[in-house]
Amino acid sequence: MKKIIKELVKKAELNKNILNEDDIIEYVPYPSDEYDSIYEELTALDIEIEPSTLEVEDEDDEDEFVEIDLDELSLTSMDVEDIKEEELMDVETLPPTVRVDDPVKMYLKDIGRIPLLTAEEEVNLAMRVEGGKQAKEQLDEYRKAEVEIPDQERVQLEQMIEDGLIAKERLIEANYRLVVSIAKKYVGMGMQFLDLIQEGNMGLIRAVDKFDYEKGFKFSTYATWWIRQAITRAVADQARTIRIPVHMVETINKLVRIQRQLVQELRREPTAEEIGEKMGITAERVQQIQKTAQEPISLEAPVGEEEDSSLGDFI
Which residues contact 268 (CB under 8 A, 6 or more apart)? Predict the structure, then answer.
């Protein structure tokens, strides 16, 4: 790791002590502990790191990240069969500011009733999804070449496409509870609960499209990464007035979780030193992260018990 940091420092020196997140990603995968450690080391050396220019829509980059991250995910992902209906319906764990009305409760109840899949069913559905995609590609090639398709073959291809879509829908709906379970962890970060679920569902759909059953991983292992990425990017892009890098959203989330854990253990608010010790970073870095996490306040924000003045009146 020291060699990587040394090379990145040299690169920064050639660019006015500035690096891009992509420069780090060239050496280590994101997200990973290695990435976080290198990022902390570089910022401690007063090297400015600009946000990544990589976009979610770039499929090639997505594939590269997933390929690298699967080994790590196999140790940290969630198993959808462990998420019981009672857990889905348990809204008491959500902050009191989260509004959970009847439609939300009905949705949670409905997805809790959807039968789960066995490992064999997962593979079978994934094979059907892949078969449907291949059939569509073949049919598109025929049409593009303006070749006449025999009726029997055309019907067979159309049936395979339809079967693939049915399999895709089944694979998606069987994992809705996984999305809800992950979305709960991002509540209170500037987005409505239902919006978090919707973004997570988009990540789930993407996971079904990209899943390769031949690699031997469970679908929930693979989908966890896509769901988290979809929600994290949505929080970074939509929830804040000032956009912050996606990796920093993850760091802030980690700090908030550790802070809550320490509050329970210590029965008081932890100091920056205590949080830093738990995270493996300095107290100064903790304060920097906390400062980044602060939301800007509007000058029109009401002040006082009567709320007849605004913050701007005192500036």
Answer: none
Question: Is residue 32 exposed (0-12), middle (13-18) or buried (19+ Cβ within 10 Å)?
Answer: middle
Cis peptide before 95 (omega within 30 of 0): no
- CA atoms of 6 and 34, how far apart (whole Å): 15
Where b means 16+ CB within 10 Å and e means fewer, 165-175 reads: eebbebbbebb
| pLDDT score recorded for residue 57 | 37
Where along the chain do its domains lie?
119-173
C-alpha pair distances (Å), 139 with each of 24, 129, 154, 162? 42, 15, 8, 13
Band the pLDDT of 68: cuts 50, 70, 90: very low
